[in-house]
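Changelog note: in this version the structure field was regenerated for every chain. One regenerated record is shown below for reference.
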Amino acid sequence: MILPFVLKFLRENKWKKISDNCKKINLESRIKILDLFNEIPMCHNPQDWLGQMSSIFLPDCDTVDLYKFLKSKDIEIPILEWNGYKILRVSIQAYNTENDIDILINQLQKYFKL
């Protein structure tokens, strides 16, 4: 059975601490990107609702072009269109750092000429 192995791995690698750090980076990155675009958040009280992923409204853009631009900079991130909105979905994993978000923001500034 795999479950005991997984639980041991999580415990030995202090996964709760890693997950908490990912959530912290996610919440901080959400604020930075919302501020960058002067956009409203999709939800309030994010600490109650968000884990390691955030969806953020983008200014009007060609989502395929933006995706390709970011991909050309080695940034893999979903860009969606939903109900007339353009949405960026940030997902923070154990291997992500705050520097990754700074790089993303820098490239978003270049793309949107901010």
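Spot check on this record: The beta strands are 53-58, 79-82, 85-91. The mean pLDDT is 93.
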